Amino acid sequence: xxxxxxxLAAGFAIQFLTGCSLSLLRAxxxxxxxxxxxxxxxxxxxxxxxxxxxxxxxPATPTLNLPTATPGPAAPTAxxxxxxxxxxxxxxxxxxxGPYAVIQVASGDVLNxxxxxxxxxxxxxxxxxxxxxxxxTGPSASIGGDSxxxxxxxxxxxxxxxxxxxxxxxxxxxxxxxxxxNTLLTNFGNAIKTxxxxxxxxxxxxxxxxxxxxxxxxxxxxxxxAHAQWIFSSTYEHNWGAAPGSGLDTVGAIHVVVLxxxxxxxxxxxxxxxxxxxVPETGGASYDTSWPAIYSNINFYSLYKPGxxxxxxxxxxLLVGVEYVQAQPYIFSVTQLDWEP
Length: 341
What we know:
The chain has two domains: 97-168, Roll (SH3 type barrels); 172-338, Nuclear Transport Factor 2, Chain: A. The protein has seven helices and 15 strands. The chain has helices at residues 2-25, 172-176, 179-194, 197-203, 225-228, 254-257, 259-266, and strands at residues 97-102, 110-114, 123-128, 134-143, 146-152, 158-162, 166-168, 210-213, 220-223, 238-242, 249-252, 274-277, 299-305, 316-325, 328-338. A six-stranded mixed β-sheet has the order 9-8-15-14-13-12. The chain has a five-stranded antiparallel β-sheet with strand order 6-5-4-1-7, with no helix packed on it. A two-stranded antiparallel ribbon has the order 2-3. Helix 3 (179-194) packs antiparallel against helix 4 (197-203). It starts with a helix and ends with a strand.
């Protein structure tokens, strides 16, 4: 009996101690679940696309100090018209405008008026090579890549002519008084001196391009706006025509053969070159230095660099033709003149 009591007492003691242990320690409180936040993905800063450069004048260009222009002969003032823009497709409507002048037609020849757009249509009249009073009636059309415009036929009714032979007429007096032309020539000089194709692109006539002559009686190479911007690096060799004296054809890239002669004038040492409006200025020559007859209705400036004392025959001049397109002046042609034996 005593042994049983001992066992019971021991059992109660064990139970008591176990219960105290559980009540004192209690069940362990679980740790909070760790939530892993994903690292924020940085927003990629996409570079802003560079704006496509628009051909035009640079923010700042060096300044050429142009001398005061010498006015050329005056002519009656006329209303300026708008040179038609080449259109594609069928005949398009338009507004009557003018006057326009005939250009690029040989002296003694005529500009034919056709019954419909295209050279294959019948001829119903003509304009003299130097006419300054062509009036558009409005419609235009594109045939074979050429722009044709409807005009008043002096013989009655209307007809069609190739717009390549027309230009907006500007009276010489109005041209010589236009300060925008001085700015045009300044920008042209800067573009050549700095080999800036983008600037030159914006200065060349969008209607007829820029006709370049190395020799007064040589070949005219026409550079449209797209090609004019590459003249500083193009390696294409043009045939500029027979050189004076030797009579041999001059062949070479424009930046090799022609541009050095332009720079000779534009970089002339003080007092620099002289500027004359609609008057070719030269230091004497054995050939005709007059403005080409086919450009008789195109106004121009003469940029003349005289030869130094003792070497007067080293003179050089640039005749720069200017065409108005939608009332804005553009470079139409550049003819280089120098002494020829």
